[in-house]
Amino acid sequence: MAHKTGGGSTRKNRDSVSKRLGVKVFGGGKVQSGNIIIRQKGNKFYPGVGTMQGNDYTIFSVISGKVEFKKKLSKKVVSVI
To answer: If you write DSSP's letter for every residue of 3-16 in order, what string do you get?
Structure first.
């Protein structure tokens, strides 16, 4: 029996591609209608006035304006004014 595997392919050399999550436009930043504000997994931030949430929990703007982050009933809410 061999004590080591042959010089072929390795088993531990795999890694997943990063998903580029996070805040894309910060508070006070200007957005146009349809711009992505936050990419997230699950509801870390909730949509507020002038924003909507996609199927993958992405928050995007529905109107043009400035981004505003608030805390409302201990939830983080993103709005566009």
So the answer is: SS--SS--SS---P
Strand ranges of the sheet holding 75-80, from the earlier edge strand across to the other edge: 30-31, 65-72, 75-80, 46-47
Q: Where are the domains of the chain?
A: 22-80
3-state DSSP assignment of residue 61 = strand
Task: Dump pLDDT digits (tens) for 30-81.
Answer: 999 999 999 999 999 999 999 999 999 999 999 999 999 999 999 999 999 9
d(CA 70, CA 77): 5
pTM above 0.85, yes or no: no
What CATH architecture does domain 22-80 belong to?
Beta Barrel (2.40)
